[in-house]
Amino acid sequence: KQWYQRRVRAPGAVHKTMTAVFVMLGESEKKLAQWNYILQLLNKPGKASLMSRISDFSKESVSKGTVERARKQLDNLTSVEVESAGKSVSCLFLWVAKACEM
Hints:
There is one protein chain. It contains 7 helices and no strands. By secondary structure, it is mainly α. The chain is globular. It starts with 11 loop residues before the first helix and ends with a helix.
């Protein structure tokens, strides 16, 4: 099983990081409050998969409001805190933090 499938609830740093990632990819912040919804998104195959969506991501197509909502999720998180949850989520944290730079 993947790291995210082993959890009924994710640690705060993981949930916030994944929420920020999916906000940047256009998902509803309200739905992302539920870890089960994030799990559904993580399990999508093909073009709907997380890695495919990140590969196709264009920073220029994201509104400033979306960037602010994603950035808000990252407030008070450090890379050290996220890294302690795992390398996979740490890489996603670094990606979304960079994507939030305007």
